[in-house]
Design goal:
This protein is of the alpha+beta class and 192 residues long. It is 43% helix and 13% strand. The radius of gyration is 36 Å and the shape is elongated.
């Protein structure tokens, strides 16, 4: 009988620790493998995200540079338009002096009140300061920094009760630009 209770306890303890150690080693190995896989997945997504961010930057640069080119083309009056005839320049550079007399008078009135709605002497129903949506994007849609430009429209001539509004308008952009159209948004003269 050479085995004592102490020997049995020692054997169980050693055997138990060995099993526990093996269990934790196995668990650690699985956890380690899982962490490695998670790191690989994380690395993949980080790379894809960074690549996507780079694509996003490239798209923004492309968009901004093309918009600058479009604005430059507009500035020198070479942008092809899509007016009723389907051709011709949509925007031409001009000045106050290029406006007909009635438009100069209206321009002066709007300038005097800071383009804040109707000016003194306009009839009721004359539109002044309502939103112009620029759905066809004939006017620039963003400024040189890539920020959107919003527009407001102003009638040139007084509204005549019982008649429809005529085709002459001013459009002011949130970028400080002012356009004149004599043909209800088919073509524009950039005044400012």
């Amino acid at each position: 009988m050479g085995t004592s209770v102490g020997d049995i306890i020692t054997g169980l303890t050693v055997e138990g620790l060995s099993s526990v150690t093996n269990y934790f080693a196995a668990k650690s190995s699985n956890a380690f493998n899982a962490l490695q896989k998670m790191e690989e997945v994380d690395k993949y997504f980080k790379e894809e995200f960074l690549q996507g961010a780079e694509y996003g930057k490239e798209i923004k640069v492309f968009y901004v540079s093309n918009n600058k080119a479009l604005e430059a083309a507009n500035a020198i009056g070479i942008r092809d338009g899509k007016g009723p005839e389907g051709a011709g320049n949509v925007i031409k550079n001009g000045s106050y002096d290029d406006l007909p007399d009635n438009a100069q008078k209206a321009y002066n009135g709007y300038e005097k009140n800071g383009w804040k709605g109707n000016f003194s002497g306009q009839t009721q129903g004359t539109a002044a300061g309502s939103k112009y949506n620029n759905f066809d994007s004939k006017l620039p849609t963003t400024n040189s920094a890539g920020n959107p430009i919003t527009y407001k429209e102003f009638d040139v001539n007084n509204y005549i009760p019982g008649a429809t509004r005529d085709a002459q308008r001013f459009l002011t952009g949130s970028d400080g630009s002012i356009y004149y159209t004599s043909d209800h948004y088919s073509t524009f003269i950039k005044i400012k």
